[in-house]
Amino acid sequence: MEHEREAPHRSPAERLRSVPGLRSIAGQVFASQVVVVVLLIAAAVVALVLQARRDSENEAGRRSLAVAEAVAHAPGTVAALTSADPAAVLQPQAQGTQQAAGVDFIVVWGSNGITYANPDTAMIGTHVTGSGTPPDKASTLTTKTSDGLAVVVALVPVTQPEGPAVGTVGVGIKVRNVHNAVDRQLPVVLGTAAGVLAVAAGGTALVSRRLRRQTRGLGPAAMTRMYEHHDAVLHAVREGVVIVDGDGQLLLANDEARRLLDLPPDCEGRPVTGLGLEAGVAGLLASGRVATDEVHLAGDRLLAVNVRSTGPQEPPGWVATLRDTTELRALAGRAEVARERLTLLYEAGLRIGTTLDVAHTAEELAQAAVPRFADFVTVELLDLVLRGEEPAGASTEMRRVAVSGIHADHPLIPVGELIRFAPSTPPAAVVEHGRAVIEADLRAAHGWRAQDPESARRILAYGLHSLITAPLQARGVVLGMVNFWRAENDPFEQDDVTFAEELAARAAVCLDNARRYTREHALAVALQRSLLPHGVPELSSLEVAHRYRSAQPGVGGDWFDVIPLPGTRTALVVGDVVGHGLHAAATMGRLRTAVHNFSALDLPPDEILARLDELVARIDRDEAREEQGAGITGARCLYAIYDPVSGRCTVARAGHLGPALVGPDGTVTFPDVPLSPPLGLGGSLPFEVAELQLAAGSNLVLYTNGLVEDRDRDLDVGLDSLRDALGDAAGRAPEETCEAVFSAMVPARPRDDVALLVARTRLLDPVRVADWDVPSDPAAVAPIRTECARQLQEWGLEEIQFNTELILSELITNAIRYGTEPIHVRLLHDRSLVCEISDASNTSPHLRRARASDEGGRGLFLVAQFAERWGTRYTSRGKVIWTEQPLHDGVGEETGGDLGDILLAQWDDDLL
Hints:
By secondary structure, the chain is α+β, with helices and mostly antiparallel strands. The protein is about 40% helix and about 20% strand. It has a six-stranded antiparallel beta sheet with strand order 13-12-11-16-15-14, sandwiched between helices. Strands 18, 19, 20, 21, 24 and 25 form a six-stranded mixed beta sheet that branches.
């Protein structure tokens, strides 16, 4: 198109330089190296071809001449030429020799010119054109075939030993069939060329990388633009830049440096000492000494000078930057004050709130501001805050909880006093508006003086003259206030109010955290106190003492229990839950409640732990499904049942430490009780039990792991210490033993909760135990009842004889009718009368209300009415139905009269 402009003609060099990657110096050097290597390779190949052609012709001549001489000088050649039929002999020999020698043809003809051997059999017998007398000597010649191929032919005469030549042998070899040297040398030449190119490429790459590293990857155009940009920035910045060489001459100064130092226009290239500068600035620039923000006077300006070396060249130069700090000097004082305030806020953040105690946090606030901000500090808080409760509204009645000052003999209201602030005072305004109030001159603060004129007089007489009152508020709720007083420092200014509010706001967050912790802690303590046993029941079988100490004051997850069981037996329980706080206390309560419920079923220890394990596993699964937390995995428990009749103690444990046993002689042992997994981890594994035979006066010691195990003490060391403590306390009462063990092993602030239970065993007097075997015959009821009545009379229990006979008659009758042998009756005379009827059946009677038309079904109802408690306990051999009665009859006289006689007569009639 006519509007299109024709591209300008470019030379090959320009087109080569325009190729990407060849614009750099390294790329251009590489291109020139490639051209030189290509030309050298071409010349080498041409010379190699010419040399190879010459060598091939010479080789062909030598090979053809050697074959021709071998044929001509062969012993049979002369004889064959002089024979009657030369062709018959020479033709086969010529063909064999041609194939063996690898020549292209062998021709033999006689002195008469007749051909006797030729690869073309048609030529045998023909006259060789141009042949005449055989040559005098061997010779070679080069000729071409009809298709243009070069052939080297050797002619050798066949001579007799004595006489003229009789023929001629001609052997020919095509030059192309001779091994070409080019085939051997050309790969070497090309390989060498490739190596040269590779070396050239590597060298170019190294040079390019070196150049890119030195130029930060920039090309010539980019470097030009960068120089222009740097020059523009250098003269545009509001900071002076001066570059001096190693000889002390000024190389460069930007516009700002010229303005700050009042440099002449021709300053560059001159010594810095000859530019009329101030002596301090000139000496620093000429020395090259490293400097950082050195302040020097230059005319009416204060310059901050920084000097650094420019590099490793010899001699080294240096660059200096100059900054005008004249205006900053006026702000230095206020900046220093601000820096001190920031430092104080930072340090206060570290000092305030180190504990979650409200009063201690208030003391930390008072101490943090003295003496760097105030001479005296007082802190007042609402009583609700001190108790951990949420303030319901604004109140001007507060309690002073902290006072700190530079002197101890201050006239301020002491800690613990309840203060009621008048409406005209600064504290009342702080509570109302939630903002800090300043009284720069207390002598002129009439509202403050009206609060308590006598106290105000003493404060002013002491020298306190300035006050800032700031609210302690968090989440929009005023928790209290802090008062900053000055006596020896300058009065407060308005700028100090902001700092006071910031310091109070930070402290208020810590106070609110402490208040909320106090509330949670109080809830946890109340919960745990309600969940832990408030005492142990009075038992005739055991004398029990206990101790408990939590790692956190009042809150922990360890527990213990002493549970009376039927048949004068007692369950001893200790357990612990991993962790502390409200969750651990609540978990402990759940497990303790479950233990009581399962104990009411009168199950053996292993079944109790199995049911607890199932309960914990189910709770964990439910909480994991609801994503509420980690559940209560980590609970451990030891459950023991002591029977004072037999002196036998059955123990099982789930992940808990075993008991310690102190014998009557003071020997301390740790009985071997099989260890089962912690609660919730047992799965299908059964819990194992151990049966211990305890003598009267033995101390059974149950404890949690916090007593013997600590991060700084191995378990074995702790058990040894417990053994020593128990040994030292041997023979003492359980209460004294607990005190001795705690004093020896438990610090004031343990790292883990500690529970200790010491039970001294007693045996029930055999005189107070009576038992009988009952035949499976209804007629045996009356005699057994009579024996029991006689035994009750011996024990002096005539008051409850009637009720007991009634209960025994019903239970024995049921055992005979519905149970299986053996049937056994046992009476235990303890704090109550225990009647036990056992048989080998696993069926248990059920209490029900009989209808009017029913003939039976009222027996257990009557048993439940006359007995204080009754129940069923299963054993490995069957079951035991038991009842407990108080030792004094609580039923009216009429109950033991006619109604009793009628009921007994009715039972006798039924059984007979």
